[in-house]
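Entry 0007
Protein: STAS domain-containing protein
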Amino acid sequence: MIERATLGGLEFEYDTEQKTIRMGGNPAIFIWTESTLAGLLSGQHRMVGTERLRLSLHGGGRDGVEEDWAYICQFPTFEQGFAELIKVAAAAGWGRWELVSLDPKAKEARVRSWNHWEATCQKALGVNWGSSYLGGKFAGIFQRFFKVSQCWAEQVTFATKGDEYDEFVIRPSDASLEDRVERLLGTDEATKADLAVALERVRKEVEERAATEKELRDKLDLIARQEEAIRALSTPIIEVWDGVITLPLMGVVDSQRAAETMTRLLDAIVQKNARDAIIDLTGVDVIDTSTADHILRLVRAAELLGARCMITGIRPAVAQTMVSIGIDLSKLVTLASLRDGLVRCMGHVRKGG
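Output (structure tokens):
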């Protein structure tokens, strides 16, 4: 569904399904001048500086007049066409324009503007950069009318400085916009603008790096917590009875894991005042000299703290390996299963320790 309205002779169309607007048959948008548009200009100014902003806006205005000129050319004279363009511009929110004077022989025009969006934006921001986009548009129009290679619109009054209106004098210029940009590149102002751009880039990079570092630290903290949880799960120490704790071992017991296991086992003996500690090897499928040595160290360390220690659940294959590599288990209490170990501990309890 298309909704239509005519304002100041200009037709607006709103497509309720596509959510698009057309103005005079061309795609358009409505935008808040004192917030959104002012913010856009402020951001550009912060990145490039005042002079570059003026030149870029002037160039944008100059290069965007093809349809304006085509509209003017529909009428018998330039003056009539420009007068009609003034009506369209006003209805489109470009303020009120007035062609104060036009001298085709001298190739000079003077145009005034009231309530133009550039001046409105700058008043909201409390700055005075000049209405360079509008000046560029006038320069592009009169460049075609004067039939010269380039024109420049010099702004002589400023609404942002308290004048009643913005006024421009448009004349042919020997210096093109590109020449002016080239000259600007050799000035201190350009250096300051480049420095501002570089500093802004560095600031953003620092912020991005800080955010990345924080994200990495958070991930490392999470990994550390997960590793701690895995270590706790891989060496669970369970208090199965008053004064009786069991340590089920599973998988491979290397040097690092053995050290961590010993620390956890000894801490548990002290904290729980354990009299008996059962090291259960049911979950150990393979054993070598190093692993057997770690287990023997665990037993001796537990006994130094006054806890009786026993080994349970040795599998047949593990038992054969331990015998073949010559491990001396004569001083260890070994039982077939964890159940047998618990029965032995219960006997200690009935005998009073």
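Curator remark: The domain at 235-350 is CATH 3.30.750.24 (Transcription Regulator spoIIAA). The first strand starts at residue 2 and ends at 7.
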